[in-house]
Amino acid sequence: MNKDFKLIIDNEDLESPPATESAIKDELQRWPLFGLSVGSFLQVIAMERQTCIMEVYLNTNHWGHFCFVEGELYDAVYGELHGEMAAMEMISWENVRLNIKQILNTSGIVRRIDKNLMLLLMESSRRRDEVQENGDHDHLEDADGIEDMEIVIDDVERAKLSACLSIMSKEMGDALTAASIANMNEGKVMASYHAPAEAAEAFLRLTKYLKNAFSANMSVELGDHFILSLKDQQTLVALMIGDYQWCVVFNHAKCTLGLLRNVIMPKVIKTLNDMNIE
Amino acid sequence: MNIQKLNVCMDILKKDLGEGFVASCIITTEDGQVLVATDQANIAEATLLNDATAFIRNALKTYPAELGQYYYIDVAGNMAVLVIPFGDYQWTITVNKKLVKLGLLLNVVLPAIINAFEDAVVS
After folding, report:
1. Distance (Å, rounded) from C-alpha A97 to C-alpha A180?
2. Residues A42-73 pLDDT 10s
3. Strand ranges, E, within A138-221
4. B-chain residues within 8 Å CB-CB of A249?
5. Which residues of A touch B73 (CB under 8 A)?
6. A156-275 fold
7. Which region, left, alpha or beta, applies to residue B122 given φ > 0 means left and ψ of -120 to 50 means alpha?
8. Which of B74, B106, B114 has the most A C-beta neighbours within 10 Å, making it the best mutation to test the interface with A?
9. What is the DSSP letter of A174?
């Protein structure tokens, strides 16, 4: 992850943002991670348990920063705003420029945000939904409006599933090698942790193959999971839960299969169910 | 390959799994032909799982990772399938998951039969 951060580390001109539009345009094209939403990147930092300042630059009038300590959101600053209010303003920003500064000494950092990042993201999505609903109902009947709604719903779902992987990562520590959650019906990867998208897609295809093979040739249906023993003390567990396939690769010397199946997964699924109720 | 020892593998398996044992089959991965099979063995299943193993190996390259000693597939209802690919051979075991605990299968039975299987294959 640190390697990825290097791609976007450029703190030199944050205090004095580019003066001209052409300069901004040139600058944006240079950023490999341009186009990310703030919410997406916050989840990455939380998942990676980074201790850092994430500076966010939307335009010359709108910029601020988030402060993370071991993946926990401690504070946010945007103009005159601090803490949760600043965070809520900036979370909904899209297509931002990002700078990351590592924090070496956390002793002087004051925690102003107590709420879980996931709750803030959910609240932000809810506010966005409200604004959209109140703004123009006719829009929803247009194809564009429906598409926007689908994107919002998709974003909310992705945020929930990313939060689940974040919890899993915290519970499993360095035993967790990679994890992904993919929608089996749409063939879409919804959330991942150190797992390449093509791996999640490859395992969706494998599940489809097994389903077809079992039902067509053996007159039985595939159950809700399969387990692969891997080399180097790794195990892959694929779980089919509702519309989603969860693939978890972990070091079984550090975390047993029993612990994953009987303690960690139930906890993660309970969190997901709780979020769906909320 | 020692066929007598393969039969011993089957005997160990049946003894260890008791009533949880449903069927078993050992095939050659090259052509999917059956070497040893018990009465209830589903030959079509064993042959399809031979293809599934190749599929799994390819899918794992995307991580990248390599398949280890076994894989286990949950089947709807009471059954589950344990597959042990070993070089040119593949052993498929169908169990009644209601009667055989996964922990017992993977931590007790599997190590014992893998040793016996290796011994039979290299003999």
Report:
1. 26
2. 887 887 788 999 888 888 788 899 999 988 89
3. 176-183, 188-193
4. 63, 65
5. 210, 222-223, 226
6. Beta-Lactamase (3.30.450)
7. alpha
8. B74
9. G
Helix and strand counts by DSSP (H, E) for chain B: 4, 5
8 A C-beta contact, residue A65 and residue A73:
no
Give the E-state strand segments of chain B in sequence order: 21-28, 34-37, 67-75, 79-86, 89-96
Query: What separation in angstroms does the CA of B14 have from each of A257, B23, B39, B117?
Result: 25, 9, 12, 14
Question: What SS3 class is residue A181?
Answer: strand
Q: CB of A234 within 8 Å of any CB in chain B?
A: yes
The residue whose two tokens read 């709604």 is A149
Q: Provide the token pair at A274.
A: 């709780």
* Residue A219 sits at the chain B interface (C-beta within 8 Å): no
- At A125, is the pLDDT very low, low, confident or very high (cuts 50, 70, 90)? confident
Joined together, the tokens standing for residue A233 give 């003390």
**Structural domain boundaries in chain A:** 7-134, 156-275
- Token reading at A158: 């992705």
Closest residue of chain A to B74, computed from CA coordinates: A223
Tokens, residue B99: 């009667």
Tell whether A190 lies on the interface with B, counting CB pairs under 8 A. no
Closest by CA position to A89, among listed A66, A114, A118, A109: A66
Say how far apart CA A267 and CA A61 lie, in whole Å. 42
The pLDDT mean for chain A works out to: 79
Nearest chain A residue (CA) to B103: A258
Q: Give B45's pLDDT tier (boundaries 50, 70, 90).
A: confident
Mean pLDDT of A200-207: 91
Interstrand relation of B89-96 and B79-86 (parallel, antiparallel or unpaired): antiparallel
Q: Of the candidates B67, B75, B79, which has its C-beta nearest A228's C-beta?
A: B67
Interface check for A246 against chain B (CB to CB < 8 A): the answer is: no
